[in-house]
Amino acid sequence: MRVGGYTRVEPFARLWSADDWFRKLQELGVPSLRASQWAEPFAAEVQPGRFSAGLRDLLDWLPQCLHETGMLGKMVEDLDYSAARICQVWPGRFPSEAAAAPFAGNPEALANRVYGGRMGNVQAGDGWQFRGRGLIMATGRASYRRLGELMGQDLEGLPNLLEGPRYAIEAAIAWWEGSVPDVQLGDQVRIRRRVNGGEIGLAHCEKLAELCRRVLA
Length: 217
Prior knowledge:
Blueprint: H1 18-27, H2 32-45, H3 55-68, H4 83-89, H5 97-100, H6 107-115, H7 126-129, H8 141-151, H9 165-179, H10 188-196, H11 202-215
Helix pairs in contact: 1-2, 2-9, 3-11, 8-9
């Protein structure tokens, strides 16, 4: 897969096997069982030609993926929140805990409330159907459609594909190449804003980025 018509590719120093990835993921803090499940997909999907800046991309891409998924442990957005947490995440939509109370502990209702009617979600239930999935959580029908077009997969019809390692990795690379300009590489603040819309999780991403430079470079 090639995205965006690359003009120059800086290759990785080498390609890593599944055994290499298993060891490297462990060194990065991924639990052993989880590392064993992800090692082969990483070996198959993380290839130099898929990143416009090669290793420089990988060293910033991987920390974001690890952080967003709780070290590869969470592939679907967790919306099982308390009323207080709902108010913290969406203060504009829920000005009080009383307003959030009907959605507390009800992930499907919450997803339809906060995501319905936007991000390409036009049908009843779209908020839940197209909640965050993948390594860099795709959210909304429009995002699933766009990623699917880049990958040549019907993610709009089969959104659950992003819950599996292979397609999650492929989608995260496609999103990255279409969303993070090479000029921003190395700037964790700007990258975090691209991924998250703000700076939540920045400290953890910076720590992971430094670790990736020791483990992968």
